[in-house]
Amino acid sequence: MIYEGLHIISNNKLALDDFALLAGRIKQYVTAFHLREKTKTARELINGIELLLAAGVSPECIIVNDRVDVAAAMGISGVQLTYHSLAVNQVKRLFPRLKIGKSVHSVDEARLAEDEGADFLIFGHIYPTDSKPGLPSKGVDLLRQVMGNVSLPVIAIGGIKPENTREILRNGARGIAVMSGILDAENPVLAAKAYYDFLQMGRSDDRL
To answer: Which of 41, 68, 148, 176 has CA 20 to 30 A from 201's CA?
Structure first.
């Protein structure tokens, strides 16, 4: 289920064939792979999806950012929308099969996304991160406020390390999204396993 667990987001720097190769090695730990490639053409994104499929990643585990046309054409799980994308309700009306995630940064944005019919949210950035220099982090308190105002599954993003995934889960998120923590790791496979193991421990905490 793409509404929980570990989401891996491409960084628009790692070549898509290398991203797909890594995906094939860590797919047992990962709920969803996001193609977040702002400079890629539709044809290049389609090639990236084909590479992921060839690496053994299920189409149900692939999400493309912004490009609704590519997601629909390739029959993958869904699309992740941002502030500059089509509105959630427009996409839902035209492509009812797609699972729609929406990136949000406040309680009001989260409420609006839910009202428009989003299936899940990605919220952040939770902790300070080099990918958002100069922008204050949202923190787990605001994450908890978002969780208290929507009923949608929320995936937390931003500066998340394996050891603080349990804090994320304790504050209501259903999963985490990671980019540099895995893609820039010295050993990405071991890093993915570490995130997965801490997520499993966090879920065990919830069951106690």
So the answer is: 148
Please name the residue that has the structure tokens 């790791």.
185
Give 109-150 pLDDT, tens digit per residue: 999 999 999 999 999 999 998 777 777 899 999 999 999 999
Catalytic residue among 34, 84, 105, 125: 125
Query: At residue 30, what are phi and psi to the nearest 5 degrees?
Result: -115, 135
What is the rounded distance in angstroms from the CA atom of residue 58 to the CA atom of residue 164?
28
Cβ-Cβ contacts under 8 Å for 35 (sequence gap 6 or more): 10, 16, 45, 48, 49, 52, 62, 63, 64, 65
Mapping DSSP to helix (H, G, I), strand (E, B) and coil, where does residue 163 land? helix
- SS3 (DSSP) at 37: coil
Half-sphere exposure of residue 89: CA atoms within 13 angstroms, side-chain side: 5
Contacts of 47 (CB under 8 A, 6+ apart): 16
Neighbours of 76 (CB within 10 A): 24
Residues 88, 142: Cα–Cα separation, whole Å: 23
Whether the model clears a pTM of 0.70, i.e. scores above it, the answer is yes
In the annotation, is 125 catalytic?
Answer: yes
